[in-house]
Structure formats: structure tokens, C-alpha cells
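Progress note, sequence design subtask.
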């Protein structure tokens, strides 16, 4: 699209236009295929942290959260003790929700014994799904996501609900939910 001044205007998903932080996140990270186990664990944990809160709050605190959780090193977190829970609960710069923190530690112990990348991507044959969304279509699709939620639950993961998992799958690119009009849809 040309705005008449010779500048090329990039069309984006509607939600990304709300503020500059969301816009950068949308352009650089959202929906980019992620296969690194540590990054997958980090992104899953951030989705757990987000539940019930605004994503922009997580973006604001993200660097502090990553620092507080040892760069989401699965081995390190799986060995966290009550002292670490107390340390995290007294850190004002992160999300201080004990149930969420405990779930992340618990999930790290599971991730130590499975290959998270394989666990996530194998059911999709390592390729992306495309829901061919139009503006306003945003909704998590229970009938689609519930069987994958069950898979996580059967393996013992905590605090993985339909919304959390669907959002995670959007972020890591399992599902391409960029709107069809969005410049990044065919990235
Ligand atoms: Zn988009």
C-alpha cells in the first residue's frame, strides 16, 4: 500500500497496532517458528505467567523474569528449591504468583526427561498450520486445541489450559495466525 508520499505502508494484524511494544513483538517474534528447547520452555513459561494478565505487562517485565529464572535453563530450574521460590516471591520486578512459579519449576522437571521440541512439533510433522484468519477472527479454538492440552496434561505439565496452549502455539509458529492482510502472514 502506498500512502501517497512514496512510503510503503505495512499492513499488520489489528492487535499489533495498539502500541509500539506490541508492534515490535508482532514484527520480530510472534509466529516465528521456534524449535530451540530452552526458548520453547521460556515461551511456554511466559504464557503461564501471563494467564489472567495483559501481555504488555509480561513484555514490560520480560527481561527481569528471564534474569530471575536463570535464562530459563531447564536443568537449573528443575533443581530449584524452596529458597528459590522465596527468592522469586520477593522479587518485585517479576510476576509474584506462587502457583505459577511452582508450575514452571514442576514443568522444568518434566522437560528434563522429554525432548520438548519433538513433543510439540512431531504431531504437526514439523510444519505450520494456517488458520487463514481474517480480522476479528481471534479466538482460541477449543475443538482444535483440547487434544493437545490433554497431551501436555498426560505428561504431567501444570497450568496448561486451552487459552494458554493456543496462545503458545501462535507465538512459536505451530499455528500461523497472522491475519491474511498482514504483511507477516507469508513470512
Ligand atoms: Zn500479523
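Output:
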Amino acid at each position: 500500500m502506498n500512502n501517497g508520499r512514496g512510503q510503503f505502508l505495512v499492513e499488520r494484524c489489528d492487535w499489533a497496532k495498539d502500541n509500539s511494544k506490541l508492534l515490535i513483538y508482532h514484527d520480530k517474534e510472534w509466529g516465528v517458528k521456534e524449535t530451540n528447547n530452552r526458548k520453547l520452555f521460556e515461551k511456554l513459561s511466559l504464557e503461564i505467567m501471563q494467564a489472567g494478565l495483559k501481555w504488555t505487562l509480561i513484555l514490560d517485565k520480560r527481561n527481569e523474569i528471564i534474569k530471575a529464572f536463570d535464562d530459563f535453563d531447564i536443568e537449573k530450574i528443575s533443581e530449584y528449591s524452596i529458597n528459590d521460590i522465596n527468592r522469586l516471591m520477593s522479587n518485585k520486578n517479576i510476576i509474584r504468583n506462587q502457583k505459577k512459579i511452582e508450575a514452571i519449576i514442576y514443568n522444568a522437571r518434566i522437560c528434563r526427561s522429554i525432548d520438548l521440541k519433538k513433543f510439540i512439533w512431531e504431531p504437526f510433522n514439523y510444519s505450520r498450520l494456517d488458520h487463514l484468519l481474517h480480522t476479528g477472527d481471534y479466538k482460541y479454538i477449543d475443538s482444535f486445541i483440547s487434544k493437545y492440552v490433554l497431551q501436555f496434561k498426560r505428561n504431567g505439565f501444570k497450568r496448561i489450559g486451552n487459552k494458554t496452549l493456543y496462545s503458545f502455539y501462535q507465538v512459536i509458529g505451530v499455528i500461523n495466525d497472522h491475519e491474511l492482510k498482514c504483511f507477516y502472514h507469508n513470512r
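The mean pLDDT is 92. Work on this subtask will continue into the next period as scheduled.
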